């Protein structure tokens, strides 16, 4: 057929084809395909791929591509990265998508880091760690052996764990190596706190003592309580030490001289916890930067102003039941903004500016679960069998880790949380070191540690 005649025929058949219904068009195409040979079918296949498989990520402006990608979940995006090098390049460059994915997993985000590939790598690291938590593979255990009698007091700071025992000694351990750095002779220890130079101990002999690590010498002895001292805290800037006792009192001491500055009364049960902390919020009773003392007994938490002045009066008393039918557990969290304590009813969180209860968290079977640590994203809890991690945004338990038959203590000093910064959000760097420590019936200390990333 001549070219001119062919073009006329093609125009004519095109007009007719366009007038057909969709069904008729399909039947026409089926018929033409059946009449086609290999050359025609190959030509058809090559052109269909171009017409049907358009790479929209390549064709769209980058900003519009990023907008569309925001609607996909991270797992789908990872699958899309396998489509082609171009897709992988575009998807990996969408910083906001990967930052949002990390936030959803409870990861801390540093907005100053704008390297897109960095955030995709962070997400991959985050998803691995969260999977390890879910599959009970994020932690490992070890033991510290060295005491010859009951270990009752534990305190952790910057990779170092201090233990106080009925064998009249206190030891300082490097958690990462399991090595004992210092060991000094003391009295029986019911509470310990330390820094680089000194160790402060509260004792069952009703006294508080300050010791020098390097020499083991006692530098101060604080006498005045008539019951065992269950909790101590101190602040070098204020030159103040506080102690809570089984004699129902809290004493405020001059740290450098050992002089008792004040005895705070009002508790009707053993004072099992004292916390000295800077306030971070403003109210009618305190301002940011003020030092605050919290003291807790079986039923109440009392709030005291503290400073260089000698006398202070209780600002507020908090409880979860007016008739004292519900007791508080002895671990207490206070970060200057919120007070958190647990009871058989659940976790109670108070706003420190108003003293109002912000929320009560009630996980399943909470009657036996106790608080270890509380942050912006996660809480660390435990009971007689397991260590738990709760996502505070959903109030769901996302992980648990089995615990051995540890030594039980109603007062609760022989358990503690380790590193705490990850409770405000993991970041790929703070998920290392000590998670939990507890004393064992054989006088050893059982450690739960973060396992390195797989």
From TrEMBL:
Gene3D superfamilies: 1.20.1280.50, YVTN repeat-like/Quinoprotein amine dehydrogenase (2.130.10.10). It holds the Pfam family F-box-like. WD repeats lie at residues 144-183, 222-263. Substrate-recognition component of the SCF (SKP1-CUL1-F-box protein)-type E3 ubiquitin ligase complex. Directly interacts with SKP1 and CUL1. Coiled coil: none annotated. Residues 54-101 form the F-box domain. It comes from Podargus strigoides (Tawny frogmouth). Keywords: Acetylation, Repeat, Ubl conjugation pathway, WD repeat. This is F-box/WD repeat-containing protein 2. The gene is Fbxw2. Transmembrane segments: none annotated.
């Amino acid at each position: 057929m001549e070219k001119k005649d062919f073009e006329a025929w093609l125009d004519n058949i095109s007009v007719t084809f366009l007038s057909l219904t969709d069904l008729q068009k399909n039947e026409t195409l089926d018929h033409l395909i059946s009449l086609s040979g290999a050359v025609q079918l190959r030509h058809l296949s090559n052109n269909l791929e171009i017409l049907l498989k358009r790479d929209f990520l390549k064709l769209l402006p980058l900003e519009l591509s990023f907008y569309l990608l925001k609607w996909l979940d991270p797992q789908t995006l990872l699958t899309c990265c396998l489509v082609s090098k171009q897709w992988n390049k575009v998807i990996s460059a969408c910083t906001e998508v990967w930052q949002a994915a990390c936030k959803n997993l409870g990861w801390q985000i540093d907005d100053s880091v704008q390297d897109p590939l960095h955030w995709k790598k962070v997400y991959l690291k985050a998803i691995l760690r969260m999977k390890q938590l879910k599959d009970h593979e994020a932690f490992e255990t070890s033991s510290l052996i060295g005491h010859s009698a009951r270990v009752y007091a534990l305190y952790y700071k910057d990779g170092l764990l201090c233990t106080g025992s009925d064998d009249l000694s206190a030891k300082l351990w490097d958690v990462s190596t399991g090595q004992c750095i210092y060991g000094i002779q003391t009295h029986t220890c019911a509470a310990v706190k330390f820094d680089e130079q000194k160790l402060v101990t509260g004792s069952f002999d009703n006294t508080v003592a300050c010791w020098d690590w390097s020499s083991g010498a006692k530098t101060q002895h604080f006498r005045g309580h008539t019951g065992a001292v269950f909790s101590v805290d101190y602040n070098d800037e204020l030159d103040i030490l506080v102690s809570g006792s089984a004699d129902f009192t809290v004493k405020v001491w001059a740290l450098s001289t050992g002089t008792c500055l004040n005895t705070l009364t009002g508790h009707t049960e053993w004072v099992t916890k004292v916390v000295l902390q800077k306030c971070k919020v403003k109210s009618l009773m305190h301002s940011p930067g003020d030092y605050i003392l919290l003291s807790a007994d079986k039923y109440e938490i009392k709030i005291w102003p503290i400073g260089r002045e000698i006398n202070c009066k209780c600002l507020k008393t908090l409880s979860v039941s007016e008739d004292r039918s519900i007791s508080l557990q002895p671990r207490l969290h206070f970060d200057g903004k919120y007070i958190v304590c647990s009871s058989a009813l659940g976790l109670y969180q108070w706003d420190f500016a108003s003293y109002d209860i912000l929320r009560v968290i009630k996980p399943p079977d909470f009657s036996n679960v106790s608080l270890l640590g509380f942050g912006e994203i996660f809480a660390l809890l435990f009971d007689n069998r397991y260590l738990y991690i709760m996502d505070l945004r959903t109030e769901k338990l996302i992980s648990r880790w089995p615990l051995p038959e540890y030594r039980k203590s109603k007062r609760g000093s022989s358990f503690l949380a380790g590193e705490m910064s990850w409770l405000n959000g993991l970041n790929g760097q703070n998920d290392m070191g000590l998670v939990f420590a507890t004393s064992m019936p054989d006088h050893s200390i059982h450690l739960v540690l973060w396992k390195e990333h797989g």
